[in-house]
C-alpha cells in the first residue's frame, strides 16, 4: 500500500507545474483576450481538465488500486494541494491571509474549490475510466 501511495504522490507533484503554467496562461494570454472575469473561471475549468487527463494517463503507475485506496489518494492529494497553496502563497510569495482565502470564494468567479473537488475525485474517476477498479 505504501508504494502505491508514494507513486500517487509522485503523480501529484506534476500538478504543481500544471497549475503554474495554467496560471501564467491565464494572466498572460486569457486575461488580455477575454478579461479577468472570464479568464478566471475558464482557467479553473482548464486546470481541472488537465488534472483529470494527467491522472487518467498516469494512475496505472500507482498500482495496487482499489476503490478505497483511490479515495485515500484523492484525500491525500487534496491535503497536499491545500497545504502547498498556503505554504507557497504565504511563505514563498508573502501573500497576506486575506489574499490566499479569496481563492476559496467562488462569488468572484474563482473555481478553486471546484478544482479541489476534482483533485480529490480524480484518482477514483481515472481508475474507473481506465477499468482499474
Summed up:
With 133 residues, the chain is an all-alpha fold. The chain is built from six helices and no strands.
Describe the structure.
With 133 residues, this protein is an all-alpha fold. The chain has six helices and no strands. It has helices spanning 2-13, 15-34, 36-58, 67-92, 97-102, 112-129. Helix 3 (36-58) runs parallel beside helix 6. The mean pLDDT is 96.
Continuous helix count = 6
What is the overall silhouette?
globular
How big is the Rg? 15 Å
Order of helices and strands: HHHHHH
Number of strands: 0
pLDDT averaged residue by residue:
96
Largest sheet: none
Question: Are there runs of 5+ residues with pLDDT below 50, and where?
Answer: none
In percent, how much strand structure appears in the residues? Answer: under 5%
User: Helical residue percent?
Assistant: over 70%
Class from secondary-structure proportions: mainly alpha
Distance between the termini: 15 Å
Topology at a glance:
Layout: H1 2-13, H2 15-34, H3 36-58, H4 67-92, H5 97-102, H6 112-129
Question: What key attributes describe this structure?
Answer:
single chain; 133 residues; mainly alpha; 6 helices
Amino acid at each position: 500500500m505504501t508504494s502505491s501511495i508514494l507513486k500517487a504522490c509522485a503523480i501529484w507533484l506534476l500538478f504543481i507545474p500544471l497549475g503554474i503554467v495554467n496560471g501564467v496562461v491565464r494572466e498572460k494570454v486569457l486575461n488580455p483576450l477575454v478579461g479577468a472575469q472570464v479568464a478566471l473561471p475558464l482557467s479553473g475549468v482548464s486546470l481541472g481538465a488537465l488534472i483529470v487527463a494527467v491522472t487518467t494517463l498516469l494512475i496505472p503507475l500507482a498500482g495496487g488500486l482499489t476503490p478505497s485506496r483511490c479515495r485515500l489518494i484523492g484525500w491525500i492529494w487534496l491535503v497536499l494541494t491545500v497545504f502547498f497553496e498556503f505554504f507557497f502563497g504565504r511563505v514563498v510569495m508573502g501573500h497576506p491571509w486575506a489574499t490566499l482565502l479569496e481563492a476559496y470564494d467562488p462569488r468572484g468567479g474563482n473555481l478553486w474549490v471546484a478544482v479541489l473537488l476534482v483533485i480529490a475525485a480524480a484518482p477514483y474517476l481515472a481508475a474507473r475510466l481506465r477499468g482499474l477498479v
